[in-house]
Design a protein that fits this description.
disordered C terminus, disordered N terminus, 76% helix, Serine Threonine Protein Phosphatase 5, Tetratricopeptide repeat
Length: 257
């Protein structure tokens, strides 16, 4: 794209015109003094004189317009914009309207408000179609507006693509989270099943343990009596064995044939 040269600025310092016979004389003189200060770039002094002029006669269009110019030169853009609009409301002749709309368009260009800049330059041309600089600014404003709208569409498209990507990512993350949750649920189910099996086994073991016959408990006294009885029996057996030894070899019984 070709590089666009920046806007041509137009500044006009309106002198007292044919309206001077219908406005306050002191207001006219203050405006003339303000114009001198303005031409010498004493903008603060010029502004003060234009304000005094307007206070003397609010219909003084020259003072209103030139006050806007002093604001513009001091880069008080919002004050200049309001003052140009005020001079447009007061203006009766095409020259003042053309110059006010032209410089109003310049302000909108500085603020990159190209739509209002196009409208302002268009109104300026309606009041002076032959002004080449206004026509140049008008064409430039239209080109810049076209580029701005194209860039805005691109930005909107990029934002939409970013939003779609984010939505897709959120959906994927949500799906992954659901999958992870299902895996966790399965793991938990397995753990729970294992836990239940262990509990069942423990319960079974406990039950079997309860059903096992418990060994009889013998008191020390019972154990003593038992040992004594066994000792007595052993003595009886020994006595019997000894008795048999005395008899000798046993005699065989006769058999009947």
């Amino acid at each position: 794209m070709r590089k666009i040269s920046y806007i041509v600025l137009l500044f006009f310092c309106i002198k007292i015109n044919s309206q001077s016979t219908t406005i306050d004389k002191e207001s006219n003189n203050l405006t003339l003094d303000g114009n001198i200060e303005f031409s010498e770039k004493n903008l603060i002094e010029a502004e003060a004189l234009y304000r005094k002029s307007i206070s003397k006669d609010s219909t003084n269009i020259a003072a209103s317009y030139n006050l806007a110019n002093s604001f513009y030169n001091k880069e008080l853009n919002q004050e200049a914009l309001n003052q140009y609009r005020s001079s447009i409301k007061k203006a009766k002749d095409k020259t003042t309207l053309h110059k006010s709309f032209h410089n109003l368009g310049n302000l909108f260009m500085k603020n990159k408000d190209y739509q209002n800049a196009v409208n302002s330059f268009k109104n300026a041309l309606l009041n002076n179609p032959k002004d080449d600089e206004t026509r140049y600014n008008y064409v430039l404003a239209k080109e810049l507006l076209k580029n701005q709208q194209k860039n805005n569409k691109k930005d909107d498209k990029d934002k939409k693509n970013d939003k779609d990507k984010k939505d897709d990512k959120d959906k994927k993350d949500d799906k992954d989270n659901k999958g992870d949750n299902k895996k966790d649920e399965k793991k938990n189910d397995k753990k729970e099943d294992k836990k239940n099996d262990n509990n069942k086994k423990d319960n079974k073991d406990n039950k079997n343990e309860k059903n096992k016959p418990k060994p009889n408990k013998i008191s020390p006294e019972q154990l003593k009596n038992l040992l004594k009885a066994m000792d007595n029996e052993e003595k009886k057996v020994q006595k019997k064995v000894n008795k048999n030894k005395v008899k000798g070899v046993p005699v065989k019984n006769k058999k009947d044939w």
